[in-house]
Design brief:
Largest sheet: 7 strands, parallel
Number of strands: 13
Radius of gyration: 20 Å
Shape: globular
Distance between the termini: 52 Å
Strand content: 15-25%
Structural class: alpha/beta
Order of helices and strands: HEHEEHEHEHEEHEEEHEEHEHHH
């Protein structure tokens, strides 16, 4: 799924007005709330429709439709709002055990959203994908760019579903060339308010395991940088895939040092077995799906050169600074428990 050609059509770029009516699915999530806040800052005249299963308690949109994106009335909500821009962030991130339900939310929900965007003549459509679509493989290049073939790991539902979502989006872009279709591939998202199974791994593990002794590098993107990058793509009516990750990396040993815990080498088969056992027995503290452990074994580092070169984007936070935001949250939580 390589991306070829210029990021936008020059004639369209000169005539296309800035986003003015923006519909966002998943508006109450971390990505969604960060984007609402950035739109308020950069496009104060824009109107925002939020679509989510729950209402946000901060950074609320102007209008809100509460419901599942698989609900048939979702398309009516979008039609009534008449958006020029549709942003699809809704996704079942937290691991579940009902794979049919996860597929329905992630893949079928995306299909419904794309149908609604086409039916109501949106000018721009942006869908959130993930860096995990590149897969964690021993033969990955030093830096994956947007021309690198995507190879989601089939043992991790999240990346596998994102791979299917990208295929839907590419088919949609080919069918509706008049719509500026783009998708982001963010790396691990950090920032104030992050609380999910990934942050639990980095904050709650008593040690950092090194699969087969590998000191695997990781990238972390601050939620504010991700929101700014997303809006930069939309305001430029850009097309295609965009990696979103700062250039620097943080290794497992560095994470252990920052947390003040040990980094312990462990054979991968033992680590994978422990992960499967923990998941099967529903043991406490961690809700990590077994397939995720593969992403700690091999690198899946990205280059965001396209975002920087074609849109002039600059990251305000490095991976190291973004990760430290998690540590600040952990320290604040610990302090509140002892106060």
């Amino acid at each position: 799924m390589a991306v070829a050609g210029s990021y936008r059509d020059d004639a369209q770029a000169m005539t296309s007005p800035a986003p003015a009516r923006i519909a966002i699915t998943g508006s109450s999530g971390l990505y969604g709330r960060s984007l609402v806040r950035e739109i308020r800052r950069s496009l104060p005249a824009a109107s925002i429709l939020g679509i989510d299963c729950r209402a946000a308690t901060e950074d609320e949109p102007d209008e809100f439709w509460q419901g599942d994106i698989c609900n048939s009335r979702m398309a009516d909500a979008i039609g009534g709002f008449r958006p020029d821009t549709v942003i699809h962030l809704a996704y079942a991130v937290q691991p579940g055990r009902d794979m049919r339900a996860m597929w329905a939310a992630n893949v079928d929900g995306t299909r419904r959203l794309l149908d609604a965007a086409a039916s109501h003549a949106a000018r721009r459509v942006l869908v959130a994908s993930s860096a995990t679509v590149y897969g964690a493989w021993p033969d990955n290049p030093p830096r994956c760019d947007e021309s690198t073939p995507v190879r989601p790991r089939p043992d991790y539902y999240y990346s596998e579903h994102k791979g299917h979502v990208e295929r839907l989006v590419q088919e949609f872009a080919a069918t509706f060339p008049e719509i500026a279709v783009s998708w982001t591939r963010p790396t691990i998202i950090c920032g104030p308010g992050v609380k999910n199974f990934l942050s639990d791994i980095f904050l709650n593990m008593p040690v950092m395991f090194l699969p087969d002794g590998n000191d695997t590098p990781l990238q972390f993107v601050h939620r504010d940088d991700l929101a700014r990058a997303t809006l930069a793509i939309l305001t430029a009516s850009a097309r295609g895939a965009f990696n979103v990750a700062p250039a620097d990396v943080v290794t497992h040993r560095q994470i252990a040092d920052l947390r003040g815990v040990a980094a312990v080498p462990m054979p991968f088969f033992l680590l994978a077995g422990m992960s499967r056992l923990w998941w099967t027995l529903r043991l406490p503290w961690f809700t990590t799906p077994p397939g995720l452990v593969s992403y700690s074994r091999y690198p899946w580092v990205m280059s965001s050169e396209r975002l920087e070169r074609e849109l002039g984007f600059e990251f305000e936070y490095s991976s190291a600074e973004s990760f430290r935001e998690l540590l600040v949250r952990e320290e604040e939580t610990a302090g509140s428990h002892t106060a």
